Amino acid sequence: MTNNVIEVKNLVKLYKGTKKPQVDNISFSVKKGEFFAFLGPNGAGKTTTISILTTTLNKTSGEVKIAGFDIEHEERKIRENVGIIFQSPSLDLQLTAEENIRFHANIYGMYGYRPAFKLMPKSYRDKVLELAEVMNISEDALFKPVKNLSGGMQRKLEIVRSLIHIPDVLFLDEPTQGLDAETRRSLWEYINNVRNRFGTTIFLTTHYIDEAENADKVCIINNGKIAINSSPEEMKKSLLKRELILDATDREALTRELSSLNIPYTINEHVIVPFKETPQKIISQIETKLSILKINEPMLEDAYIEFIKKTNKING
Prior knowledge:
CATH superfamily of the largest domain: P-loop containing nucleotide triphosphate hydrolases
CATH architecture of the largest domain: 3-Layer(aba) Sandwich
CATH topology of the largest domain: Rossmann fold
Oligomer: single chain
Helix content: 25-40%
Order of helices and strands: EEEHEEHEHHHHEHEEEHEHEEHEH
């Protein structure tokens, strides 16, 4: 029995009137409870892919299963088992914020319809107020028509609505776009808590690459094809150098010692020693008294930028 909650095999999306597929025969899988970051430059195919996975766009060919349900024949079952924070607004502007949340909860079968917030079960009312606090939405704003709320407040409301049920898979399409730093942090704390408590699978697309730093897997799509699918650490190792930055009052003695130990180095502003595994082994061998010792561990964002640079160079 597979432990994958998302399975994509040979997925193709070819729009009418075009010759080149926007999504070109891609395959990947996501395990239950995994934090999966799906990244790529604008126009790479990531929005098309997530639209297919969330049943809002039809595929041209290929197989897709979400939570064990086939996307071609069991769309309704899939929708019952996923939560989605869309990049584009999808609120009813004429309803109040709370009414948008309540109807969403009704559609997902969490609660029977009640004509007013105060008539809804206590579990619903408590959940709404809890999420509103997480997203820094005042209780007063909950009962205002959405059309009277700011764009940032509407974005927060979209997130509350998507989190009102505990889905098997939570799709996050640029979830923190337009949020202030404090709210962005609160949202991620809540999402991580949901994942740890309920084993919810997180599928993220974002331009804030630092949000994917703690992902279990990073998958990069480019020109409609999967270019990289690995852990952040493996990606960083394959694209970037990890370096020790060293120096000594007697630099000549330091470089002489490194040469005698067959440790490669370059000299820039300081002495740069690349390493692949643990830097401690190199450090423990050096007897020259050091005046500078720094470990340069690249971030995921550094690796992503390096990948885009290399890709642009190849395509250019």
